[in-house]
Amino acid sequence: MGPSLRDRPPVSTVGLPRQDLIRAPTSLCDTIVSLSVLCLTLPLTTVAGVIFKRVGDVRPYPDHGYVQKQWAAIAPHQVRLDQLVTTKRTLDLEALLEEDSTFYGDLFAHVVSWRGDLYLEDGLHRALRAALQQRQTMHARVLELK
């Protein structure tokens, strides 16, 4: 495995042009460092307005009770990042860095469509990685709730 974050020199943004702050990451460590730089240099409202429609911290829709097998039956398609409302305000880096963090999970984000909004239920790390790679869309499984 590559060098740990502790082995890397501290990230300094002083004097860097804006395009150098948001370069495409090449590894998980680069993603985390890029995300840290992005969060330290841009106010949250700017990040929310550019990447996501809104940053939330709850699931306002009713419990759907879907399990992994049911999610897998939904075909993935592209969704725009700026149409997503997050259901988590923070990203747990410890869980993200675990070696088997995606081994048991889905390859696609889980999005719930409810009352005209698209809620990012699972896959915040994938959405942020897509944004850091300057992509405007990502693949997700979208569950339509009535």
Give structural notes.
The protein has one domain (5-144): Conserved hypothetical protein from pyrococcus furiosus pfu- 392566-001, ParB domain, CATH 3.90.1530. It has a six-stranded mixed β-sheet with strand order 1-3-5-4-6-2. It is α/β, with parallel strands linked by helices. A hairpin with a 2-residue loop joins β4 (109-114) and β5. The longest helix is centred in the N-terminal third of the chain and has 14 residues, at 28-41. The chain starts with 17 loop residues before the first helix and ends with a strand. Helices cover 31% and strands 21% of the residues.
Query: Whole-Å distance between the termini?
Result: 45 Å
Top CATH class: Alpha Beta
Q: If you consult CATH, what is the topology?
A: Conserved hypothetical protein from pyrococcus furiosus pfu- 392566-001, ParB domain
Order of helices and strands: HHHEHEEHEEHE
Instruction: Please identify the structural class as seen in this structure.
Output: alpha/beta
Give the overall form.
globular
Largest pleated sheet: 6 strands, mixed
Number of strands: 6
| Overall tally of domains | 1
Total DSSP helices:
6
Estimate percent helicity. 25-40%
Hey, roughly how much beta strand do the residues contain? 15-25%
